[in-house]
Amino acid sequence: MKSCVCNTKLGWIGLGFTEKGLHTATLPQASAQAAEEELRRSGDSEPAAAADAGDWPHQLRRYALREVESFSGKLDLDQGTAFQRQVWRTLLDIPRGETRSYKWVAERIGRPRAARAVGQAVGANPIAIVVPCHRVVASDGSLCGFGGGLALKETLLRIEGVSDHRR
Q1: What predicted TM-score, i.e. pTM, was given to this entire model?
Q2: CA pair distance 81, 2, nearest whole angstrom
Q3: Residues 60 and 87 occupy one common structural domain
Q4: Range of the domain at 144
Q5: What is the pLDDT of residue 66?
Q6: Co-location of 116 and 52 in the same domain
Q7: Residue 166 forms part of a structural domain
Q8: What are the residues whose beta carbons fall under 8 Å from the beta carbon of 63, sequence distance 6 or more?
Q9: How many separate domains does the chain show?
Q10: What is the SS3 assignment for 21?
């Protein structure tokens, strides 16, 4: 798979691509090397040409500056289990500027007792920020469970206009 890194106000984000679209987006890293290492761990290592990356680097830079409302472009969500893919597609239904609970996601996919399993699937999301796992919070509205740390989760929510994630 092909990959590149882009520098944003949030940090360096690694992007991996297949012929179907964006396959991987790392959480922001402190350096280009750290983002490249994350990509290698996910199997994305062949350098991508500008055409392969499309508009994704530009969109992510603009997102970090609060200039983009939504992402556009093809996504490749074929990795993961059928359950994980179902959860990831549901995350795409959470509007910018809003949050939902793990329980909400579980109910939405028809598995109301699977909130913990949903949490694990959310944590395995390979296309961070674009597939908005940061918009999922605990049932009481508290922030929990984010691979980049709760400070980054709160920053991403603030970028999107969420000032109070507690409902």
Answers
A1: 0.92
A2: 22
A3: no
A4: 82-159
A5: 93
A6: no
A7: no
A8: 8, 71, 129, 159
A9: 2
A10: strand
What lies within 8 Å, CB to CB, of 50 at 6+ separation is: none
Query: What phi and psi, each to the nearest 5 degrees, are found at residue 150?
Result: -70, -30
* Weakly modelled stretches of the chain, pLDDT under 50: 167
Q: Is 6 a catalytic residue?
A: no
Crossing angle for the helix pair 115-123 and 82-91, to the nearest 10 degrees = 80
Q: What is the pLDDT of residues 103-151, one digit of tens each?
A: 999 999 999 999 999 999 999 999 999 999 999 999 998 998 888 899 9
Residues 27 and 86 grouped into a single domain? no
Indicate whether 155 and 90 sit together in one domain. yes
**60-75 CB burial, b ≥16 within 10 A, e <16:** bbbbbeeebeebeeeb
Which of the following is catalytic: 4, 6, 133, 144?
Answer: 133
Choose one of 17, 35, 64: the last residue of a domain: 64
